[in-house]
Backbone:
C-alpha cells in the first residue's frame, strides 16, 4: 500500500509540474528534457510512470485539467437557484482569479485546443469533452431557470450557453495582453445587461 501511495504522489507531482510547463510554454514547445529538468528526474523514472509525452499529457487532462475546470466553472453552478446571477458570479470569480495571476497565459482549455487542432484527434477529444460538459451543465441550469420562473420561456438555452462560453473564452484571451482589470469590469457589466434581457420580468 505504501508503494502505491508513493507512486501516486510521485505521479501527481509530475503532473502538476508538467501542467505548469505545458500551460506556460505550450505542449509542443515543452520537451521531455524540459520536464525531466524541472522535476529532477531521469528518463527511466519518467518512462516508468508514463509511456510517452502524449500519455503524460492525457493523464494531466484526466486528473488535473478536468478537476480544475470542474471546481472553478461547473461545481459552483450545480443545483443552484437564480441561474443568471450564479453564472455571472462564477464568471466574475474566475476572471478575478485570472486577473491576479501574474503567470496568466489565457484560458488553458482554448490554448491547448488551439495547439492540438488538426494535429491530434485523440487529445482533441479529451479537451472538447470538457467544453461539452460545461455546455451541458449550463443548458441544464438555464432550462431549470426557465421552469422555475427565473428566465423567460422564449430564451434559447443552448444559444445562451454557447454565447457565455464563447464570450468568456474570448475575454480570457484579451486579458493576457490588455488591461485585465478594465476588461474584466467591462465584460461583467455587459454580461449583466445581457442577462437582464433574459430574466423573467415577473421575478423582479
Residues:
Amino acid at each position: 500500500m505504501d508503494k502505491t501511495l508513493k507512486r501516486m504522489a510521485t505521479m501527481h507531482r509530475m503532473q502538476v509540474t508538467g501542467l505548469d510547463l505545458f500551460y506556460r510554454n505550450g505542449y509542443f514547445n515543452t520537451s521531455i528534457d524540459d520536464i525531466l529538468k524541472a522535476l529532477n528526474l531521469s528518463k527511466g523514472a519518467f518512462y516508468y510512470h508514463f509511456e510517452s509525452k502524449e500519455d503524460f499529457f492525457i493523464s494531466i487532462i484526466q486528473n488535473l485539467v478536468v478537476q480544475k475546470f470542474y471546481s472553478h466553472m461547473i461545481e459552483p453552478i450545480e443545483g443552484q437557484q437564480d441561474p443568471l446571477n450564479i453564472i455571472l458570479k462564477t464568471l466574475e470569480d474566475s476572471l478575478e482569479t485570472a486577473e491576479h495571476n501574474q503567470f496568466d497565459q489565457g484560458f488553458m482549455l482554448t490554448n491547448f485546443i488551439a495547439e492540438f487542432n488538426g494535429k491530434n484527434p485523440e487529445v482533441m477529444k479529451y479537451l472538447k469533452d470538457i467544453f461539452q460538459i460545461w455546455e451541458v451543465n449550463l443548458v441544464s441550469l438555464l432550462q431549470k431557470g426557465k421552469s422555475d420562473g427565473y428566465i423567460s420561456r422564449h430564451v434559447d438555452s443552448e444559444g445562451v450557453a454557447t454565447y457565455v462560453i464563447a464570450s468568456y473564452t474570448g475575454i480570457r484571451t484579451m486579458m493576457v495582453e490588455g488591461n485585465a482589470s478594465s476588461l474584466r469590469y467591462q465584460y461583467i457589466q455587459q454580461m449583466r445587461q445581457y442577462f437582464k434581457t433574459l430574466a423573467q420580468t415577473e421575478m423582479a
User: Anything to note?
Assistant: The radius of gyration is 20 Å.
